[in-house]
Amino acid sequence: MLTVSNVSLRYGKRVLFEDVNLKFTSGNCYGIIGANGAGKSTFLKILSGEIEPNTGSINMDPGKRMAVLSQNHFAFDEVPVLQTVLRGHEKLWSIMEQKEALYSKTEFTDEDGILASELEGEFAELDGWNAESDAATILSNLGIPVGQHETLMKDLSGTQKVRVLLAQCIFGNPDVLLMDEPTNDLDVETIRWLEDFLAEFENTVLVVSHDRHFLDNVCTHVCDIDFSHIKIYSGNYTFWYQSSQLALRQRGDQNKKAEEKKKELQEFIARFSANVAKSRQATARKKMLDKLDIEEIQPSTRRYPGIVFRQEREVGDQILTIEKLSAKNNGVVLFSDLNFTVNKGDKIAFISRNTLALNTFFKVLWGELKPDTGTVNWGVTTKMSYLPNENAHFFTAPVNLIDWLREYSVEKDETFIRGFLGRMLFGGEETLKMCNVLSGGEKVRCMLSKMMIQNPNVLVLDEPTNHLDLESIQSLNNGLIEYAGIVLFHSHDQEVINTIANRIIEITPHGMIDKYMSYEEYAEDATIHQRREELYNLSGATA
After folding, report:
1. What is the 3-state secondary structure (H, E, C) of 435-480?
2. Domain assignments of the chain as residue spans, ordered by start
3. What are 14-24's pLDDT values in tens digits?
4. Looking at residue 273, what is its pLDDT?
């Protein structure tokens, strides 16, 4: 058990946490959620001992081991991959080093023999004889082939380093596992493996993530950071979000009797429990939501942007035709032989094992880059709006947000402009902020305001959830579900893909796969899996 007692943390006059008292128990996975700046990562650093709180203490049961997902991608640059993973279990690694030093001595004394016996006993207790094979198995499951296990960390790509550090974190069955954004830079297959691993993990996990699909699949509880306090709720992220929204609506209904509200909450819990029981989610196995005390359900004070896309006019029959499209980067084929037509009602998720291929494809789609071969033909009735993966060039001028957004609007009235900024939570003096000093999340929210004010009938979105907090991601997700126009998008957020796309197009260096189905169906289809392996292997591509 991990216990947090009376923890407070202040930076000057700013109170980040106040009188936090929590207990984290084995067999549960706790998702840490909160608005940007609420202190999610800071809380994990307090738990790990990296940051000392102003008051209070963190206590773990005697003899238990904590492991933390390292955020320093250069700390082990001179260390081989397999050894980096083994070092994640500090006690075991120390014993291994002591054994090696002891057995390399030229003269072996009686005292050495006694020490060696003690070390061998501890080594066996920690399952040391299987350590290297266990570490190698985890690495292979995370996409690091055996041939790279003796490679120095500095010779790996950034994505590979992330996977090795993830392996280091989960190696050796730690009693408490702290993970800050563990799915960053992982492909869908690896994320699914990690979801399955954590669903079966019998100890305590605390995780910060903006991936709602991941949180739903692994979390048994949600820890909500709000107004400098932290409260634990049973259930996964979707249950917390939907129940808090229901409670918020109920709070606003002054005429509904307490008995009616209680009945509505009970019906919601029963309905949600029935749906969860049919899924892969760990929540259903570990915590039956129908036993939840309804007094736990509280309205959220979180602010959600109002993201609503409207069409100025409906698109015609001729929308987009792609013929024989291909592109290279430094002589390496990113994609080739792309041929497809966009139809009315399409909401297409483009996927690939190569993120650069997708980013390049969207730039070609928008006309920022020219393809090596092929054509991109847009219909005359299309009115498009584009959210690029890189948006810095939109925010170089030292103008305030009102003047910035006015440039993209036919209607120039300030009240009208303020309305669209307000939907994206820019109110009052914030609308006078200079656009060249915005954070990454603020820039994306401005870009979404720009898209809404243009009333397009085609949305082109390249990784739209980057830099957004969970509240903005949820609002964007809802807005795209309700949008009546065409959506062409690429995202690492599985929940966005699952809930929006009715068509999946996977682009590879040697062709494409085009299917009208949900992403879940696509990912589980064995025939598609075989075909995609053929396409990637044919061209020598790697995951």
Report:
1. HHHCCHHHHHHHHHHHHHHHCCCEEEEECCCCCCCHHHHHHHHHHH
2. 75-172, 236-296, 320-538
3. 899 999 999 99
4. 61
